[in-house]
Amino acid sequence: MDADGAAVIEARDLDLVFETADGPVQALKGVSLSIGRGEFVSFIGPSGCGKTTFLRVIAALEEPTGGTITVNGVSPDEARRARAYGYVFQAAGLYPWRTIAGNVKLPLEIMGYPAAEREERVRKVLELVELSGFGNKYPWQLSGGMQQRASIARALAFDADILLMDEPFGALDEIVRDHLNEQLLSLWRRTGKTIGFVTHSIPEAVYLSTKIVVMSPRPGRITDVIESPLPAERPLDIRDTPEFLEVAHRVREGLRAGHAYDE
Amino acid sequence: MDADGAAVIEARDLDLVFETADGPVQALKGVSLSIGRGEFVSFIGPSGCGKTTFLRVIAALEEPTGGTITVNGVSPDEARRARAYGYVFQAAGLYPWRTIAGNVKLPLEIMGYPAAEREERVRKVLELVELSGFGNKYPWQLSGGMQQRASIARALAFDADILLMDEPFGALDEIVRDHLNEQLLSLWRRTGKTIGFVTHSIPEAVYLSTKIVVMSPRPGRITDVIESPLPAERPLDIRDTPEFLEVAHRVREGLRAGHAYDE
Amino acid sequence: MIWILGSLAAWAALWWVNTRIAASALAERRAGRVAAPLIFGLAMLIVWEGLVRGFEVSPVILPAPTAIAAKFAASLDVLWIDFVQTFVKGALTGWVIGCGAAVAVAVLIDRSPFLKAGLLPVGNFVAALPIVGIAPIMVMWFGFDWQSKAAVVVVMVFFPTLVNTVAGLDATDRMHRDLMKTWNASYWQALVKLRLPAAMPFIFNGLKIATTLALIGAIVAEFFGSPIKGMGFRISTEVGRLGIDMVWAEIAVAALAGTSFYGAVALAERWVTFWHPSQRGGR
Amino acid sequence: MRRVLPVLVVTLAIVVIWYVAAVWLNSAWVIDQAARAGREPSFMDILRGTMNQDRPLLPPPHQVLAELWELTVEKRITSKRSLVYHGLVTLQATMLGFVVGAILGVALAIGIVHSRTMDLSVMPWAIISQTVPIVAIAPMIIVLSNAVGIEGRTVPKTIISAYLSYFPVLVSMVKGLRSPEREQLDLLKTYNASRWQTFVKLRLPASMPYFFASMKVAVAASLVGAIVGELPTGAIEGLGARMLIGSQFGEPMIMWTALFAAAILAALLVVAVGIVQALAARAMGQVAR
Amino acid sequence: ADDLTLQLKWVTQAQFAGYYVALENGYYEEEGLNVTIKPGGPDIAPTQVIAGGGADVTVEWMPAALAARERGLPLVNIAQPFKRSGMMLTCWKDSGIKTPQDFRGKTLGVWFFGNEYPFLAWMSQLGIPTDGSPEGVTVLKQGFNVDPLLQRQADCISTMTYNEYWQVIDAGVSPDDLITFKYEDQGVATLEDGLYVLEDRLADPEFKDKLVRFVRASMKGWKWAEENMDEAALIVLEHDETGAQTEKHQKRMMREIAKLTAGSNGELDPADFERTVATLLAGGSDPVITRHPGDGAWTHEITDAALK
Ligand SMILES: Nc1ncnc2c1ncn2[C@@H]1O[C@H](COP(=O)(O)OP(=O)(O)OP(=O)(O)O)[C@@H](O)[C@H]1O
Ligand SMILES: Nc1ncnc2c1ncn2[C@@H]1O[C@H](COP(=O)(O)OP(=O)(O)OP(=O)(O)O)[C@@H](O)[C@H]1O
Ligand SMILES: Cc1ncc(C[n+]2csc(CCO)c2C)c(N)n1
Ligand SMILES: [Mg+2]
Ligand SMILES: [Mg+2]
């Protein structure tokens, strides 16, 4: 929708096999996908189907065993070196020896933001995820959901072209989740970032995305790619419109098919 | 509903204050709750409101700073020593030096189940969470959702009176989640366990519970306790009935109120 | 001069070869992992030989590797006798007893906070008694033969293993401990199923450091009285006799034995703590 | 008080065992003496005879303490017999060696973690270096540094002390620097953090438990190194020299007091490291459990 | 003044009184020498120190010096202040040892570190194997002190007439309980405490001149020490940096040392040299030296000039 058409991520025929002690595991098989600049792409699929793996391949954290992938026209690794990515991992992965503010500040320190701006950004982004009073706490002093929000804040604190988020809202209640969904949408519209987003919630995927990728497991393949017909401007109650429900239905069918294939 | 009325967990006026470097944090304040034998109680509330803390108090992992709590008429610690609890933590917490099967087997070893029965139970429970082929894998070889399922399997492998589950299905897709919801309900009906269940999903809470506890944060208090009018026998499509939607509505209102209080 | 420059050039060349090995796929295979240190060692030997020849260092100060090798080959029988006496009887026995005791004591004092608070500081004190002070006493108590050497080794390896084990037993995850609690695991169950496995990376640290200490301890202890065999005996005697080539031949035996010993423990570590991030190849 | 009591109890137990052992070990001499004099010693004779021998196999605690007191408190620090003086000499070499050794160990560990070549080729030789009996080459180190024109004992002592202490640091730090989880490393990878940044922000803090465990071992090893380094240097000053002199001149009490002084020094050093560790842990937000 | 460094074989004690006296009484200074005396110790091999350039002259026992010479370190004896050997085996009388042949089956403590040669030569002359077999002796590498005897871990230990023997006595053992075997009396005496330098340096006339002055002053020191034994002992004590030596022990040691230096003006008696070589060559299967070292191993040049 908001995409200007230029492909930012271009994967062709990706294969990825993990070698384990008891034989190889095919995590991705023949995955081809093209993501345009400014698109918001959701990945949905049963647990263990390769969503995380695919995101990791995009971010050059995993080397595919077959196929090609380019990001911004270059290899993922070059894109990584150009600091193209903000990544929210599935587990919060906060550093236990840093406070929440310290954790959020970490990428800013690494990317050399000036000290004053760092403080300002940390303040802003902690406010965004509703953790304002908790900057001085250590990770183990926060609840699970708060930790996850801190890790989202960490990825939003700096300006990455491509935002990869692996189930960022999994541990949040509906209200906060709705709130953060809106925030994310508005951030996306404002900045024109390209976003890859893994979720298990069908409404969330439909509400947020311009494109929904449905995957199925063992071996992990893409079974459906749904372009969303919804407009860019999305109030929360768009979720009750027939268009919305129709897309959601299609996603659910795709998911179910994947499961059927599995069992 | 299925409860036979005798109170298994009886909390009165619980307070819990964490002392941190920058001042005390009141995680629970004046929490009173009575849970009858065989009840299925869901806890729902904004992130950081004290759900995990309350569950930890029940399981004697945290000492309340005020108020009283009894489990089966004795202190939580005595109940713990009588092995009354099965606990699924918010994060999977698998032991990295054990395979998935080894992890599930661990409580059985500790509780002294005979070897043959151990194998049998592990097999059954891994099947239940759809991880049959993965018994020989190590935790880091599994996806996030698979790890979480393994940790659920671990808690279900032995026969605890009281099952405490902290967002067990957070990282699972809808299909698996529905499937596990059904499984859990049938297990509960079959065994008459008392279950404490934290979730962020309103439909899930309403679908599963005999009683829904709504909490609000800072300080963590109980704002509403809703007895479910739904019958014990619950097909998945009960979720479209007006009774169901009404309860869900009430939960949502309670949640929203908590948030309003917060901000 | 030619010798010096030549040896330095050889060093540079071999280092370059190693860089290539490290960068190639060989590094992941056993061949590469064995070849690289050998090449590195070869480079060191060449430099040594070159420098000794270049500067015309007297053989009674530092013999050339070739001279040492010749001596080594000519004295295999003596070296073997010394090896058995010092390594097998002294070092190995002492290592097993000392490390076993350290782990046992760590577990023991860990069980009782009282003992931990009491024994750890006192243990530091006792176990930090320096070897050169202990060796004469052990000879006094346990006689001249290998038993006194083993006793020195016991004292030497005890402390590192203890410190590491205690640190390891404390290095468990909060959630992992809580799980054990909810299952009401007994102390021993939690120990065997959680705390010992979690402590293994630390314990192996201690064990590895202890392997080298054991060898040093057994050899040094022989300086303070011994029967007329053993690596330490030979070294101290030959230094006085200016048989420096024999001294280095014994040092070579010590190096071979020590490295194999360390390697064996490291292998065991790989096998036991395969799950630790440092062993998963996820560098 | 709650922390002192256990130490006292344990110490008391050790003292009791010690006395029993002293009587047992030293009695042989008393009996032997009496036998040569043609007497049959009574138990009380034995007991009395074991408490204050000139050359005891194991001097009883009070004897060591009395001697320690005399040599530390009652002697002028400048006296050649003052253990405070000798202790300071040894402490200086220990600290020098410890600092050099710790820096060397950490530096090598950093190299090994970051360079595959170093990992493959240096580690085995670091191990080999530790299998070389230091006492065997200590004289050579001194002869060589003499030949190079280095006078005085400080340099060779520092070298030996550092040689013994760098290894525990190296082993632990290699492990510690490699202990971050994959996700923690991956996070920094997505930031394209430089190796240096990854090191400072992740590997180093993650390695702290290993670091401090190794520091305690290393500081004790440094002390041993300093003492070993004092043996072949003409045996004049330092606790090592005292031990040797005591052993050499058949004066066990000199040896025992020096031994105890060394152990007390080691204990103090280990405690000091422990305090630094506690401070660091607090600064890093970890609480003592 | 010319600098010169002397390496001692052992720690500062009356065994080296002559050199300390020469230093203290200014004899070296009179000769225009600035002498540094380096004490030795259990880990110090004087031969290695001199090979490494750490000293100009060293005090060494002849067996060790000849063995070093055969190994390619050309040491030359330039003076021999000690005429007689002070080494002996000290045994418990109640061990039943009466003659050397009674050593069979017993445990003997021996100094190694280059000091074992006289013992090995003696045993091979007696035809007693040192392998621990029943008809042979069990040899222990004895440490720095006399504990093995006192603890009865050995039946006999090596002692010097001037030092360790008295440590045994001081430990409360009566001389009547002991029986001693002096190497001197057994006809296996080897020369002790000579002065040695590296052969090639003797080509340098300037160095030779320094040595001449050094030997002259040293012998003056020795003769003074023989005549003023108690004062000499006190001078030694003065130089003992360890503070561990006692006056009583050093005075006694000085008296014993004087017995050994008496009869030497510093010149090596070639007959003593030949006797030492013969003893060492008779080493049986494992001789200390394999061939006669030749007369290059000693020189009278220095003493001739010094004692003129
Ligand atoms: N160990 C601790 N030390 C200090 N504060 C803590 C600690 N554990 C929890 N808290 C605080 O207590 C409050 C309640 O935490 P709790 O984990 O119970 O929340 P929760 O309801 O489980 O939230 P979520 O849904 O995010 O998991 C939070 O504000 C948290 O910061
Ligand atoms: N390091 C690894 N070694 C071996 N197998 C792995 C590894 N990482 C992932 N896998 C396997 O790859 C498959 C895909 O995993 P992935 O983490 O991509 O799943 P996912 O779609 O993210 O699932 P979830 O929703 O549960 O997080 C799984 O079967 C998993 O077991
Ligand atoms: C380790 C060792 N043991 C014995 C001696 C023998 N020694 C040579 S001179 C001398 C003086 C006597 O007190 C003694 C005992 C030695 N040099 N080194
Ligand atoms: Mg995943
Ligand atoms: Mg929680």
Automatic annotation (TrEMBL), chains A, B:
Family the entry assigns: Belongs to the ABC transporter superfamily.
GO molecular function list: ATP binding; ATP hydrolysis activity
Family matches, as Gene3D superfamilies: P-loop containing nucleotide triphosphate hydrolases (3.40.50.300)
This protein's record includes keyword Manganese: no
Residue ranges constituting the ABC transporter domain according to the UniProt record: 11-238
SUPFAM superfamilies: P-loop containing nucleoside triphosphate hydrolases
SMART domains recorded: AAA
Keywords, alphabetical: ATP-binding, Nucleotide-binding, Transport
Superkingdom in the source lineage: Bacteria
Name this protein carries in UniProt: NitT/TauT family transport system ATP-binding protein
CDD domains hit by this protein: ABC_NrtD_SsuB_transporters
Automatic annotation (TrEMBL), chain C:
Keywords: Cell membrane, Membrane, Transmembrane, Transmembrane helix, Transport
Location relative to the cell: Cell membrane
Gene Ontology CC: one annotated term: plasma membrane
Domain called ABC transmembrane type-1: residue spans: 102-272
A GO BP entry: transmembrane transport
Keyword Transmembrane helix: yes
SUPFAM superfamilies: MetI-like
InterPro entries: MetI-like (IPR000515), MetI-like_sf (IPR035906)
Membrane topology: Multi-pass membrane protein
Highest rank taxon of the organism: Bacteria
Chief localisation class: membrane
Pfam family, one: BPD_transp_1
Bilayer-spanning residue ranges: 34-52, 59-81, 87-109, 121-144, 150-171, 202-226, 246-268
Coiled coil: none
Name this polypeptide is given: NitT/TauT family transport system permease protein
Lineage of origin: Bacteria, Pseudomonadati, Pseudomonadota, Alphaproteobacteria, Rhodobacterales
TrEMBL record, chain D:
One GO BP annotation of this record: transmembrane transport
UniProt KW keywords: Cell membrane, Membrane, Transmembrane, Transmembrane helix, Transport
InterPro entries for the chain: MetI-like, MetI-like_sf
Domain ABC transmembrane type-1 positions: 83-277
Bilayer disposition of the protein: Multi-pass membrane protein
Domain of life: Bacteria
Regions that span the bilayer: 7-31, 89-113, 125-148, 210-233, 253-280
Principal subcellular localisation of the protein: membrane
Gene3D superfamilies: MetI-like (1.10.3720.10)
Pfam family, one: BPD_transp_1
Compartment(s) of residence: Cell membrane
GO cellular component: plasma membrane
Membership in a protein family: Belongs to the binding-protein-dependent transport system permease family.
Name assigned to this protein: NitT/TauT family transport system permease protein
Species for this entry: Meinhardsimonia xiamenensis
Source taxonomy: Bacteria, Pseudomonadati, Pseudomonadota, Alphaproteobacteria, Rhodobacterales
